[in-house]
Design a protein that fits this description.
Elements: E1 3-10, H1 13-25, E2 31-44, E3 47-61, H2 65-75, E4 84-87, H3 93-100
Antiparallel strand pairs: 1-3, 1-4, 2-3
Helix pairs in contact: 1-2
Length: about 100
């Protein structure tokens, strides 16, 4: 079984809670952490922008990623939300077993 850590930035705690709860409740992710107070600097519509955001760190099975991405897009207010999947290449046997359960 292969797993991903998925990174998603959100504008506020309400959006973060809504997305994280939906993903875990619907079985698309096993766990989602919400990291507050990050500063994002990015290029958008011809200008450098700076925004305060939160970061979701989501752990999920690779097989669930297409549905997970679709749900994030459905619930996210951004035109182009950040949705980046990173493969989990190793981890504790107990934790990976829990992700697989």
């Amino acid at each position: 079984m292969e797993f991903y850590v998925v990174l998603v930035t959100v504008p506020d705690i309400q959006t973060g809670n809504t997305i994280a709860d939906a993903l875990v409740s619907e079985g698309l992710a096993k766990c989602a952490n919400i990291v507050s107070d990050i500063k994002s600097i990015f290029h958008w519509e011809g200008h450098v922008q700076q925004e305060s955001e939160l970061l979701l760190i989501i752990k999920a099975k690779k097989a669930n990623f297409p549905a997970l991405m679709s749900k994030v897009k459905e619930l996210h207010p951004y035109t182009v939300p950040e949705i980046i999947a990173l493969p989990i290449v190793d981890g504790s046997e107990e934790y990976l077993g829990w992700l697989n359960s």
